[in-house]
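Support reply, case 0932

Customer input (verbatim):
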Amino acid sequence: MKLSHIKLFPLFLALALLLALSACGDTPSEAPLQQPEERQAETAPDNTSAEDTSPVTEDTAETAEATEPEPAETETTEPEAAAPEPVASGRNTLVVYFSATGTTKGVAEKIAAITDADIYEITAAQEYTDADLNWHDSGSRTTLEQNDKSARPEIGSDRISLEDYDTVYVGFPIWWGEEPRIMDTFAESYDFDGITVIPFCTSSSSGIGRSGKNLADNAGSGNWLEGRRFSGSVSESDLRGWIDGLQ
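Our regenerated output:
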């Protein structure tokens, strides 16, 4: 090797090294700087949109569903059925009774069974309590009513038509020796024209007394027969004998 070549070799080596260093310095300074920004520019709007709009859309839907007025429930009002007209049973006998304790009711039911009659219960608009029935108490309701011949307790049971009947048995307990005043209310409330009316009463000992005549006077109409008193335990055979004797 010539001496001139040896001297030039270090110079070429230095130039080559310088060129290599320059090439390595350009690559890291350009490519890594752009890639994250581009990647952010591509993905950020979509991600932001997904995060921002999805919850809003769901909340809006839920709010709309919660606040949307539900259709009002409309009650279907069916026309009230007209009250059925009283249907005649074909019987021409009726047993009417008032019974505060059930004693007269039992006798009335027996008479209705024997005569194949319809039956109608008189009930008080204001029910009688045990205190009301206490005859030992001078201030009890029944004592005050029975001492007042003008008292007319209100009837609570529905009114009945007597049009189809030609015989009506009228039963009641004896209170203070007479018919309960609610029976006077009944007698004054109906027209008994053309009807045979047969009173009967229940008591432990007292007879019917003037009760039948009182009712007839208050009614002012009808053919009122003489009534009869029975105990609560009267037998059907005794009742039948009495009924047959009325024919």
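We compared this against your earlier run and they match. Two observations from our side: Residues 3-67 form the longest helix (65 residues). Confidence is low (pLDDT under 50) at residues 23-88. Please reopen the case if you see a mismatch on your end.
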